[in-house]
Amino acid sequence: MPAQPLTPQAFLTLLAVACLFGANHVAARVALDHGMDVASAVAVRSLATALVVAGLALLAGVPWRFAPRHRRAMPAIGLLVGVQSLCLYSAVARIPVGLALLAFNTYPLWTALAAWLLYRHRPERAVLIAMPVILVGLALALDAGGAASGLGARAQWALIGAGVGFAVAAAAVFGLALVLTQHEAADLDGRVRTALTMTIVGALALAGALAQGGLRWPTAPAGWWGLVVLSLFYGTAITTMFTLLPRLGVVANSPVLNVEPVAALLMAWLVLGQAVSPTQGAGALLVVGAVM
Question: Which of 46, 57, 100, 129 is the most exposed place for a label (fewest CB within 10 A)?
């Protein structure tokens, strides 16, 4: 689809979608802090979204026909998105939500690397220029040297290392999933692709939860609210991306969506009390600005 001018309506819709995605992760942290585990949260969110999107596709009369390459690629894409979801929620459970999403926001770099390794597509000049800027901004946002926290580099990485590792792993896996989607399944209707992907993700997460003794539900009312909100916000955001945005003539990966980490930082500060220093805030803006 050719790029279209960004109308005020489209801009506000994209901004709302970015905020919904950010709020989903804040709600996930609430649910995880009140008894739910990562696999259970991913399973509930994904299966609920799959049901809604599949229903919309059926109501719209979208054909569910798959070419042989779709049958080969979609299980792999679903597996990758499942790993990405588990890793990102694991990061959100360990470090401040906004910082986890900032580390995840390096996925354009991993996308470029995967495209080069798999399809020999050389990275664009803009990506090569943005790469060091994103990494510098990320180092500031994460307080890599431990200056803002006063802990020092070693203690700071002992505190955030696992969470950052999960977030970066989520970014790398998501970048690979995007490249496979673009080259192997781009001609498949977005609603069908999303419903199938979320079904695979939900089934994998459910199997993982059952293997660990069953679904773990929240142990407090706040956790239940977090579960309801994360499912509602994620489902609404992903459904909007694949139903409303095409009618607006806007490609789904508009740079406006990269406002998500900043929105999550603000919401995590208001809801969870997760504050960042001015230096970390400047790093966050640097990462988002470079990605956009």
Answer: 129
pLDDT per position as a tens digit, 170-179? 999 999 998 9
Reference 170, options 80, 94, 97; nearest CA is 80
Which residues, other chains included, contact 108 with Cβ-Cβ below 8 Å and sequence gap of 6+? 127, 130, 175, 291
- Which three-class secondary structure state does DSSP give residue 53? helix
Taking the model in full, what pTM does it have?
0.88
> What are the Cα distances from residue 196, in Å, to 102, 153, 256?
27, 43, 26
Lowest-confidence region among 89-98, 135-144, 240-249, 268-277: 240-249
Tokens for 40, please give them. Answer: 């259970």
Query: What is the spatial distance between Cα 256 and Cα 262, in angstroms, rounded to a whole number?
Result: 11
Structure tokens given for 198: 């979320």
Q: Tokens for 83?
A: 């790993």
- Residue 77 burial (C-beta neighbours within 10 Å; 0-12, 13-18, 19+): buried
